[in-house]
Amino acid sequence: MHYKIKYAPFYLLSLLPLFVLYWLSDLAFFILYYIARYRKKVIEENLHIAFPEKTSQEIQQVGKRFLRHFCTMMIESLKNLTISKAAIHKHITVKNPELIQKYYEEGRSITLYTAHQGNWEWLAFLPIFVPHQVTSFYQPLSNNYFDGLMQLIRSRFGVLCIPSDKGYRTITKLDQENVKTLNIIIGDQRPRNKSAKHYTDFFGVKTAFLVGADRIASKGKHVVIFPAFTRLKRGSYQIEFQLITDKEIPKDNFNVINDYSIRLEKIISNQPFMWLWSHKRWKDQFNQSKN
Question: Where is the chain membrane-spanning (predicted)?
Answer without folding.
Answer: 12-36
